[in-house]
Amino acid sequence: MTKYLIKIIVFLLIYTYSCTNGEDNKFNIKHVYATMETEPVASFDDTVDDPCIWVHPTDPSLSLIIGTDKDENSAGLRVYDLSGNQIYETEIEKANNVDIRYGFKLGGDTVDIVTTGERTSNTLGVFKIDSDNRSLVNVAAREIIVGITVYGSCMYKNVYTGEVYAIVNDKEGNVEQYKLFDNGSGLVDASLVRTLKLPGKLEGCVADDLLGYLYIGEEDKGIIWKYGANPSDGDIGSLVEDEIGTHLTADVEGLTIYYSGDSTGYLIASSQGDNTYAVYKREGENSYIGKFAIVDGNNIDGTSETDGIDVCNMYLGANFSQGIFVVQDGKNDVGNQNFKAVPWENIASAFNPSLDINPNWDLRKY
Ligand code: CA
Ligand code: CA
Ligand code: CA
Ligand code: CA
Ligand code: CA
């Protein structure tokens, strides 16, 4: 009996310690807080989806968060500064996912290109960043209608050849990869270079530009597929984790890559079903590291039911000097949906051992 009581007391002590220590001990989920949230969007519905981060070439504090709003009536891309103020918006159709790549040769210039899947017209939206006005300029050469009913989308740049691709997918498991090119008049056109067929519903995807991999989430199974990112890499994929439900709870949503160097870093996935973010090694077999959640703190509500995510390792001014992690929040406490941002070092230091922090590795130079 005494032995039993001691066991209970020890358990309670450990449980109390773990709860006050900023971590959910049972699942070992690390807890972090957001330090910035963007202005809510105009729509009451579940319309905010996916963010991407643009790093300003000369003044990192002027970097931007570009997000999607897929509302039927007011859809478009929303551009926020690092304080969360919306400073620009496009009036395109249902923009679902968004991604960005640096250093695209266009009309004798080198520009940063943003693509989005537009679900009403079933097209690929293509924009370039106007660095001076911190806005977006439509540079699509034509209405680029894709061959599937577009849902998710992402980009890949082969840093060794400079070729830039847009990848779109649908709810039936189809993937189309398009090569982007200057049409000769300073506008961007796209040609289909590869198709893939996966078993089920897709959305979140991300490419590793240096290691040459394309990761695609099969969302309602909660699994992540891994393919070679180049068109010549064929159509055979493998699973990041063989067993369904090992660390991800469906839907698996946004995927993103943290670069801590040329060949190291992390693959991060939004595990929507349990309101957490799972961290895997970028290199090798993508071994699982751990999970974290963004909880209430700093007068900003925590995040839940997250769709898209993005991370950036680079110095982005005083408030995000060690990088930034940005997520869509499915339930904003006051107002409509928005994006939340966490300094990367707060996530890195929540883990033991700490995750790598490298604000100096420069994705822009590739
Ligand atoms: Ca949603
Ligand atoms: Ca994205
Ligand atoms: Ca989804
Ligand atoms: Ca929330
Ligand atoms: Ca809020």
Structural commentary:
The chain has 366 residues and is mainly beta. The chain is 7% helix and 44% strand. The strands form 6 sheets. Strands 1-2-23-22-21-20 form a 6-stranded mixed beta sheet. The protein has a 4-stranded antiparallel beta sheet with strand order 3-26-25-24. The termini are far apart. It binds calcium ion (CA) (5 copies). One calcium ion (CA) binds at residues 301-304, 329, 331-333.
Stretches with pLDDT under 50, minimum 5 residues: 10-21
Strand order of the largest sheet: 1-2-23-22-21-20
Count of individual beta strands: 26
Main sheet overview: 6 strands, mixed
- Report the end-to-end length measured between terminal Cα atoms: 66 Å
User: Given the helix and strand composition, which structural class is it?
Assistant: mainly beta
Average pLDDT taken over every residue: 93
Number of helices: 2
